[in-house]
Amino acid sequence: MTLKNYLMFMSVVTGICWGAFFFVAGMVDPMRTNWLGFLLFYLSLFLALSGTFSLIGFVFRFVIFKGEVAFRAVKLAFRQSFVFSSFAIIMLLLAAKGLLTWVNFGILAILFLVLEFFVASRSKNKHHNPA
Predict the structure, then answer these.
(1) Contacts for 22-31 with beta carbons within 8 Å, 24 or more apart?
(2) pLDDT tens for the chain, residues 1 to 131
(3) What is d(CA 78, CA 51) in angstroms, rounded to the nearest whole number?
(4) CA distances from 125 to 52, 67, 81 (A)
(5) CA 107, CA 94: separation in Å to the nearest integer?
(6) Which of 92, 21, 84 is nearest to 56 (CA)?
(7) How far apart are CA 80 and CA 116, in angstroms?
(8) How many CA atoms lie within 13 A of 32 on its CB side?
(9) N or C: which end of the chain has fewer CB within 10 A?
(10) Is the dihedral of CA 103, 107, 112, 113 positive or negative?
């Protein structure tokens, strides 16, 4: 798949995910829905955020780091968008349950940063040590 095709595909799919999110958000009454309504709400938001952050992250990397290979920028942006979207959804879930505090936020932020650094270091070692 070419870079242009990837960007077009991701843009269309992200747009569809945002449409699904707004549809679900408009149809689901949080006071009356069951677990399926909440699942659809958070899943559609997660997918929409992942696509958006992936596109923004790729464009940012492609503009700032002009020498970076496109497929590595796509891979990195997609992984980081997945991590950041997961963090955002967990924060929203905690807020919905009344459990979001500065302490929880800090602990989760540190956990997600450690996870990202761990995955990034393993990815870097994999590219430099082909063994």
Answers:
(1) none
(2) 788 898 999 999 999 999 999 999 999 998 898 999 999 999 999 999 999 999 999 988 888 877 667 878 888 899 999 999 999 999 999 999 999 999 999 999 999 999 989 988 887 666 555 54
(3) 8
(4) 28, 20, 21
(5) 13
(6) 84
(7) 8
(8) 3
(9) C
(10) positive
Residues in the chain: 131
- Dihedral pair phi/psi, residue 88, rounded to 5°: -65, -45
Q: Write the secondary structure of the chain as one string of H (helix), E (strand) and C (coil).
A: CCHHHHHHHHHHHHHHHHHHHHHHHHHCCCCCCCHHHHHHHHHHHHHHHHHHHHHHHHHHHHHHCCCCCHHHHHHHHHHHHHHHHHHHHHHHHHHHCCCCCHHHHHHHHHHHHHHHHHHHHHHHHHHHCCC
- Model-level pTM? 0.86
For CA atoms 23, 27, 30, 36, the dihedral sign is negative
Return the structure tokens found at 72: 């590595």
Tokens of 63: 């503009």
